[in-house]
Design brief:
- The structure holds 2 protein chains of 2 kinds.
- Chain A has strands at 3-5, 10-14, 19-21, 24-26, 32-38, 44-50, 56-58, 64-68, 73-78, 87-95, 100-103, 107-112.
- Chain A starts with a strand and ends with a strand.
- Chain A contains no helices and 12 strands.
- Chain A is an all-beta fold.
- In chain A, strands 2, 5, 6, 10, 11 and 12 form a 6-stranded mixed β-sheet that branches. Chain A has a 4-stranded antiparallel β-sheet with strand order 3-9-8-7, with no helix packed on it.
- Chain B is an all-beta fold.
- Chain B has no helices and 11 strands.
- Chain B has strands at residues 5-7, 10-13, 19-24, 31-37, 44-50, 53-57, 65-68, 75-79, 88-95, 105-106, 110-114.
- The termini of chain B are far apart.
- The chains are: A mainly beta, B mainly beta.
- Chain A binds chain B through residues 4, 32, 34, 36, 41-46, 49, 51, 90, 92, 94, 96-106, and chain B through 4, 31, 33, 35, 40-45, 48, 50, 55-56, 91, 93, 95, 100-109.
Chain lengths: 113, 115
Amino acid sequence: AQSVTQPDIHITVSEGASLELRCNYSYGATPYLFWYVQSPGQGLQLLLKYFSGDTLVQGIKGFEAEFKRSQSSFNLRKPSVHWSDAAEYFCAVGAGYGNKLVFGAGTILRVKS
Amino acid sequence: DTGVSQNPRHKITKRGQNVTFRCDPISEHNRLYWYRQTLGQGPEFLTYFQNEAQLEKSRLLSDRFSAERPKGSFSTLEIQRTEQGDSAMYLCASRPPLRAGDTQYFGPGTRLTVL
């Protein structure tokens, strides 16, 4: 069965510091991978996605992620975090014919000034 | 493109009551998904429609849950005889036709509290 693991429940970084959020997936075929962000009381907003091709994908708000098949990972990175990036981040894999999303448990990002 | 809308945004009900939520997808999106998100967890898939056909249901969707999309546009999710364990955020998402892997666009969700 498909699954996604986000090992870090909480991460705190200083404003201006770099960020890496980890994501590991389990899926038998070529995965479709996504990162979504959720602010309190808000729906999920797509940051970026990977389907095929270049394994380094660029997203909105200065985020990028790298697909590493050998490590079954799709880690999210940002070189310099802004206070407005504080939110919860979800990694997901698209599974099955209908490409339903299987989500990880999320990582809560706190940004300290 | 007005986005996915969900109503109501919040619902408080007593255990044993029935509730119904509505989702209006982005126009011309033929796929519609329902997810449930409990505190501290990521969203979990419940069911999805392609046009008016319900093509997959999760085992999470007990007999008390029913979803419809009668004309292939909006969808409703009904929970009968609510239980406290049903308290969660119910999220709806829609996706355009064709090309596997396209983005699912999420609505703001309906937060259900069962007392």
